[in-house]
Design a protein that fits this description.
The structure holds two protein chains of two kinds. Chain A has helices at 3-22, 26-51, 59-75, 81-103, 108-128, 130-133, 155-177, 180-190, 192-197, 202-228, 238-251, 256-279, 292-306, 310-334; strands at residues 146-147, 150-151. Chain A is built from 14 helices and two strands; from the N terminus they run H-H-H-H-H-H-E-E-H-H-H-H-H-H-H-H. In chain B, strand 1 (136-138) and strand 2 form a beta hairpin. In chain B, helix 1 (2-38) crosses helix 6, helix 2 packs across helix 8 (191-217) and helix 6 crosses helix 8. The chains are: A mainly alpha, B mainly alpha.
Chain lengths: 335, 300
């Protein structure tokens, strides 16, 4: 891990401890819990998209698998939520192997469509397997998680816990990027054939990252189920997969911090916009959640057209450009 | 009697499958058209179908415009959307990496979906059938007049397609571009224009598919994704880029889906077509009608 990354982790930790002191409103804390879960999923997806160069348009399926594993195992079989979380992650990893081994041989558009089809099938199973998943009615009364005997039943306690998991996930991902595996992955992204000829086992790395990203998503899904205590198929559809890809792409898929920032920005954006419209309500501008899709689509399109490296890279380039410009002016002034 | 009854069921499922399959076939033709000229899979293809259907509902049910005129206006409108998409989102992308293009077509599909939701709302829309709802009876199975319209229009489109690509200069130029773009350019073909044309035609076919299927399925804004994936399934089964293969594969996928829904489980009906897509992608990505060598697996 680079020194910069440790610095970043500390900043995240400080912000997380400060936020509940600044924001009293339980509703906003809840939104920030969902933000943390999106961050977790997006980190895994970023490893897959930005580092291994493979797109997945079906990641909400793994998110859903985690959530349903927790829901089914804790409610129907009365397992501990922790064991359910682990079991969900193992199952998601298994599914990732079954789907990933043949899919990752595919490239580009084929892979996108295969993962899209996979995500759609899993969503159909959530809706149709009524005996197991409760169908459209979902599963209610999912128990809270408890940590060292303390039940994480308040939004605030879960807020700390979920962000602690994010920091842990971030720490792991950053270490991975700066390891042999990470360098191998970047080589794959550059050129799969060149990496292969240098002895990087491309197929194996890709499948490992796919499994890892599935586990990240599954853990996020399990936490979602324990936090909301109720799940139905709604949040695990194809649209959510697309939204996850949007978050990663907007922040910048070649940088794990970019994915994190993208996830945070897009998770709180709808809330921010509706707040803003309440503020401007007097002048006849009102925001309505129906516009979310237009906003997300517009942002994604604009970023992909004008800043294909994402926001983080765009800002970095802009800063570098302005530093250089300032330096040039200085040099000219003094010479 | 029971065997007669089961035969009637089978026939009924096949009719239903052919009707669904015709739509997949048309979506698949749209995919192929853009794929052949650019190597892109347009993930917004399903949205063209939705847009066509919803626009037609508004024109015929609310504005009371006559069917043929509304048909022309709708196809024209969606074609313009396709052209705008190419001009503003595909054409300016340099360098056109696969990941970036995939995400751009995804972004366009979200935008179109979001616009459709804001404009037409979340409810599904009823549209009058083209010529009544009095079903015909064929050997005990029934078939709606609208289904016959769908078959008829599919046949007309395939015929027009064959004519266009084999007997017109523009069609031949498009084919030349899909075979070898540089060589086509050397021969004086404006390849940029051909790409635009392929988006226009593909949007137009999507719109027609949406118009003819809306009376049966009652269109709503969210149907694009599934129609798109299933149409892509048909395109892959038929061998990506092979449009006649796509038509046969579309009908086949529709029939298999209807049989699966009828005999195995109606809850999982939508999953069957997707399962076929995954199996074909995993086992034989060149499609069952495309030879391995012939499939070029274009990737820019």
């Amino acid at each position: 891990m680079a020194q910069r990354d440790y610095f970043g982790l500390i900043i995240v930790a400080v912000i997380v401890t400060l936020i509940p002191r600044l924001i009293e409103n339980e509703y906003y804390i809840g939104i920030l819990v969902f933000t943390a879960l999106n961050c977790l999923t997006c980190m895994g997806l970023c490893l897959l998209m930005g580092y291994a160069g493979q797109i997945s348009l079906g990641h909400s399926a793994f998110y859903g698998i985690g959530a349903y594993a927790t829901g089914i195992l804790t409610v129907t079989l009365a397992w501990s939520p922790w064991i359910a979380l682990g079991a969900g992650a193992c199952f998601a990893a298994l599914v990732a192997v079954v789907v990933g081994v043949p899919s990752l041989r595919l490239k580009g558009h084929y892979l996108a469509m295969a993962t899209l089809g996979f995500g759609a099938i899993v969503h159909i199973v959530f809706v149709a397997a009524v005996d197991l998943t409760g169908g459209p009615n979902g599963i209610a009364r999912i128990p809270h998680l408890d940590l060292f005997g303390i039940e994480l039943s308040t939004d605030k306690s879960f807020f700390y816990f979920s962000w602690a998991v994010v920091i842990l996930g971030l720490f792991f991902a950053l270490n991975l990027i700066h390891s042999r595996v990470g360098r191998g992955l970047r080589a794959i992204h550059g050129s799969q054939d060149a990496a292969g000829s240098l002895g990087v086992n491309t197929a194996r790395y890709k499948i490992q990252i796919f499994i890892l990203s599935a586990v990240y998503a599954s853990v996020a899904g399990s936490l979602y189920a324990s936090f909301v205590n109720y799940i139905d198929p709604g949040p695990f559809d194809v649209m959510h997969s697309v939204l996850l890809v949007t978050m990663v792409a907007v922040g910048g898929m070649h940088n794990i911090w970019g994915a994190l920032i993208g996830a945070v920005l897009l998770s709180i954006l709808p809330e921010f916009l509706s707040e803003l419209s309440d503020y401007f309500g007097g002048v006849g501008i009102s925001y309505n959640p129906d516009y979310d899709m237009l906003i997300y689509g517009g942002i994604l399109l604009a970023i992909m057209l004008f800043l294909p490296g994402g926001l983080v890279e765009g800002i970095r380039n802009f800063l570098r450009f302005s530093f250089n410009a300032v330096a040039k002016i200085k040099r000219r002034a003094f010479s | 009697m029971s065997s007669g009854g089961s035969f009637t069921d089978l026939l009924q499922f096949i009719f239903m499958g052919l009707q669904r399959g015709s739509i997949y076939a048309m979506v698949a033709m749209g995919f192929n058209m853009i794929y052949n000229s650019t190597g892109i899979i347009n993930l917004a293809q399903g949205e063209f179908v939705v847009l066509g259907g919803l626009m037609m509902v508004s024109l015929t049910m609310s504005a009371n415009i006559s069917l043929p005129l509304a048909f022309v206006i709708t196809v024209f409108f969606v074609t313009i959307v396709g052209i705008l998409m190419e001009r503003f989102t595909i054409n300016p992308v340099k360098p056109p990496t696969v990941m970036r293009l995939i995400i751009i077509t995804v972004a366009v599909s979200i935008l179109l979906k979001g616009s459709a939701m804001c404009f037409w709302g979340k409810e599904s829309h009823y549209m009058k059938h083209f010529s009544g709802t009095e079903p015909f009876e064929i050997m005990g199975a029934t078939i709606l007049p609208q289904t016959l319209w769908i078959f008829g229009i599919l046949i007309i489109i395939v015929a027009a397609f064959i004519y266009f690509f084999n007997f017109t200069m523009t069609g031949k130029s498009m084919r030349a571009c899909s075979i070898n773009r540089d060589a086509a350019r050397l021969a004086g073909i404006n390849d940029r224009k051909m790409v635009m044309l392929s988006f226009a035609l593909s949007a137009g076919i999507g719109a027609i598919a949406g118009i003819i299927v809306t009376p049966i399925i009652q269109m709503d804004y969210s149907r694009g994704a599934l129609l798109g994936i299933k149409g892509f399934g048909a395109a892959v089964v038929g061998g990506l880029g092979n449009s006649i293969g796509a038509v046969v594969a579309g009908l086949l996928v529709g029939i298999l889906e209807a049989l699966g829904g009828g005999y195995i489980s109606s809850h999982y009906m939508d999953a069957f077509a997707l399962l076929i897509l995954l199996i074909v992608l995993f086992i034989r990505p060149s499609g069952i009608f495309g030879s391995r060598e012939a499939s070029r697996l274009k990737e820019f």
